[in-house]
Each structure stands twice: as C-alpha cells, then as structure tokens.
Amino acid sequence: MAILQLENGTQLTDLIEITAELAPLNIKLSRWPVGENPETRALLAKDALSDAEKEQVLQDLDSYFEELQRTDGYQSRDLIVLHPEIPNLDTLLSKFKPCHTHADDEVRYIIAGEGVFGFVRPDGSQVELTVQPEEYINVPAGTEHWFYLTEGRRIKAVRYFIGKEGWTPEYTGTEIRLRPLAAVS
Hints:
By secondary structure, the protein is α+β, with helices and mostly antiparallel strands. Helix content is 23%, strand content 31%.
C-alpha cells in the first residue's frame, strides 16, 4: 500500500486520497496485481536474477506492457533488480537522489521491494510517496522529483520506455526539504 507523506508530516495511505494529492502533478498511481504464478512468485523472492529469469518475469507480466503499447505507445521494457549486494549500489543510486526532471515519462511497476519518489508540487510544497509491490506509477516528463530506496534497499521494478534517450536526469538544484521516510515494511 502506497504511503504519501505531506510536508506537514501527515501520512496518507488511501489510494483515492493519494491520487487527489498527486493530481496537480498528473501522476498516475495504480494497483496492478502480480498474479499467483508460483514460478514468478519464487523469482520475486530471490535477491538476484539472471537475464533469463528477468525475461521470464517480464513475459509473465506482459499483459500490462501490451496495454501500455496500445494506449500510450510504449516500445520496450526491462526489469531492474537492486539489492544491498550489488557492487557500487550507492553510486548507482546517487544520481537519482538530487532533485531532477526527465525529458520523458518515468514509468515503474514495482513488483517486489519498495522505493520512495519525492515530488515538488506546483505550489512549491514537497511530498514523498513510498511505492510498494503491485503499484504502478507514471511520473510525467518535466516533473521535478527525486528517488531513493527505503532501509530494506531492495526493489524489483519493471521500467517501461517510449525511448530511452529521455531518461538522463536533468538536475534542477531544488533543495529537498523533506527528511527521508522511515522504512515502512
């Protein structure tokens, strides 16, 4: 269940309330079931996955990709798997911690673990959204945001792309005023 922390410390867990708070940013947040395939569930429980295992998970979840292809023109997808044993994990994540934008939408379907997206709203206030398993998020191009992992430092997320050239972070220099949320799992 997603958790939205407002700048005043209020935390929201109701999807309808969260969606209303994120509406000025045009962020889409949905619940997408992973399903009950025992092979996929076993792979999601593992820390590391081979390329073949990643492709197996992606194929099992491709009904979502096919819908995004039809409705929004997405062309490719991949599965990112992050966990504490990955060499240079902190270096990899450090480029997403400062406030930035992208020229393309940032689209994630979290299938295991969790991460936190922070956003600068049009009025300048800031919020942080903890996205958890079976949650899909679409952050529109140009949205000022940041990202980090929770204390568990584990996430498996399907990333959907129209094109990968729009994914370079463009840093804004905006100061992040919110303190990181505590781990919620």
